[in-house]
Design goal:
By secondary structure, the chain is an alpha/beta fold. It contains six helices and seven strands; from the N terminus they run αβαβαβββαβαβα. The chain has a three-stranded parallel β-sheet with strand order 6-3-7. The protein has a two-stranded parallel sheet with strand order 1-2. Strands 4-5 form a two-stranded antiparallel sheet. The protein is elongated, with a radius of gyration of 18 Å.
Length: about 140
């Protein structure tokens, strides 16, 4: 489980608490509850990521490029070896060359995709911010 997205010292938290109106923090990490003392609707990004892979596989894609952030973990959850095992168990090519850890920079994404030597049928992006640059490539 990820740590909180909050430090607990954000000014906005003081403002919300001072307003004395019911507040729920949505699309956040489960631990945010402990840091903010506010109710949360936590996201399950790891499960959502796996569902996306299953969807691609069920639609015939087995050569999928994973366009990840510069995080040491795929989608901030899965260590490389674990992710490769997940891919293999799903019947998806687990070649490390299809797993790209890139900064959120248009030029880096463009170059990586254009220089990719492996054949692929789909690209699975870390986020919509990455996808935006990918569309331009």
């Amino acid at each position: 489980m990820q740590d909180s997205s909050f430090t607990g010292k954000e000014v906005i938290l003081d403002i919300i608490k001072a307003a004395n109106i019911p507040t729920v923090i949505c699309y956040c990490n489960p631990n945010d509850y402990y840091t903010t003392a506010m109710p949360v609707v936590a996201k399950c990004t790891d499960e959502a990521w796996l569902q996306g892979l299953k969807y691609l596989k069920n639609n015939g894609h087995t050569k999928i490029v994973t366009l990840n952030s510069t995080s040491q973990k795929i989608r901030d959850f899965f260590p490389l070896e674990e992710y490769q095992k997940i891919l293999k168990d799903m019947g998806i090519n687990d070649d490390k060359e299809l797993i790209l850890n890139l900064p959120l920079e248009e030029e880096a994404i463009f170059k990586a995709i254009k220089n990719l030597k492996k054949e692929f049928t789909a690209i699975y992006c870390y986020s919509d911010f990455y996808a935006e640059y990918l569309y331009k490539a």
